[in-house]
UniProtKB/TrEMBL annotation:
Belongs to the 'GDSL' lipolytic enzyme family. InterPro entries: GDSL, SGNH_hydro_sf. Keywords: Glycoprotein. It comes from Aegilops tauschii subsp. strangulata. Pfam families: Lipase_GDSL. The keyword Glycoprotein applies. This is GDSL esterase/lipase. One of its GO terms (molecular function) is hydrolase activity, acting on ester bonds. SUPFAM superfamilies: SGNH hydrolase.
Amino acid sequence: MCRLAPAPPPLVVQAGDLFPLQRPSLQVHLQLRRLLRRHGQQPRRLRMVLRVRPRHAASLRHHLLRPPHRPQRGRATHHRLHRYVRASLLISGRQATRESTSSGDDYMFFVGAAENLGLPYVPPTLVHNGSFRRGANFAVGAATALDTGFFHERDIPGGSSKFPLNTSLGVQLEWFESMKPTLCRTPRECKNFFGRSLFLVGEFGVNDYHFSFQRKTVQEVRSFIPDVVATISMAIERLIKHGARSLVVPGVIPSGCSPPILTKFAGAPPTAYDSKTGCLTAHNELGLYHNLLLQAALAKLRTKHRNIKIIYADFFGPIMEMVESPHKFGFEEDVLMVCCGGPGRYGMNSTVPCGDAAATTCRDPSARLYWDGVHLTEAANRHVADVWLGEINPSTGVSRKQGAKGPCRLGRHKI
C-alpha cells in the first residue's frame, strides 16, 4: 500500500509520468516518437541542441556506440546501423549529424499533459547543452530493461551481436549517476534535491519482448518476464539509495494489439485471436502477466520502503479501451490499421516503413489509434495522458479512486 500525503503543489503528468510542479524531476526512460513533417501530424516546436555536453561526451559515447561508430558520432555514420537505431537518431525529421538547433516536429507522449499544465518539456540528456536541474530525459529509442548480453546469450535478435547500441535500463542508470555530481555535491544536498524530485521509470519490457518474438515462442518469452521485472525493481532500489522518494513505474502495452506483432504472426489460426478486438490473445496475456508481476514487485517495495511513494501507471487499460470502443474516441472502425506505413493488412510493411519515400499516410491521423504501428498517434497519446491526469487529484496528490490509503496506481485496467 502506498500513502500519498497531501502536498501544496499539484502533481503533473509529463511524458506519461508525474512530477511535482516547479520541482526538479529526473526521468529515467521514455520511448520518444519521431515524426517527419511531411507525414501530416501537427508539428510541435521543441528547441533541441544536437550536441552532447562536452564534459560528458566521452563517457556517453563510450556507452552508446560500439566500434567502429564510437569515435565518429559527429559524422554521418548512423546509416550503417540497424534501422531501429536509425529511428532513435532522428530528431524532428532531421538526421542528428550536426551540432545545430532544429524546430521540432516530434509529438511525444508527455506533450499533451505538459501543455495542459503549462510546463516545460524535459530535456533529453544526449542532445541538450543546458542545465538539467529542472529535469532530465535519459531515453533512447528501442531501449530494453535487460542488458544486451542477456539477449546475446539466449540467441535472441536485439542482442549484443545484433544491436550496436547498449542503452538498457542499467546503462541509463549509469548515465544518471554520472550526471549526479552536476546536480548536487554533498550527501545532504543530494538527499534534499532527489527527495523533492519524481523519478519516472519506464515503461520498460516492451522492447525486450518484441525483439524476442522474432525467434522465441510466447511461452519462451514468458519465462524471462520475472527477469525483466526484477531488473526494474533493482533500478528502483538503486534510485531510492540515491535519495529518490517519489517514483512512477508504468506497465506495458497490450502487445497482441500491436500492428507489428499482428503482422509478424499473420499466419496464426483464427482461435489465436480475440473475436471482439482482433488482437492476439496469448500476447496480450503475456502483457497482463508482466503487469501483474510488476504490481506485486512494487507492493513489496512499498512494504520495504514505507516512506517512499511508488506509483504504478497503467498503459494497458487505456489502449484496450480505445481498441474495444474506437468510435467513442473518434477513431475509424479498423482501429488496428496504422496511419503511416506501406501496403499490408495493418499498413505494416518491412520494406516500406513509415518515413520511407514510398510510405503513405492517412488523411486524418486523429482518427487513428496507431501512427506507425510502434507508436500511438497524438490523439491516442492524449487520451492516455488524460486518463492518468484524471486519476490524480491535483489539489492533494491523492488518487481519486483509491484515496490516500489505497493502492498507488494510475489507469483503469484491472487484473
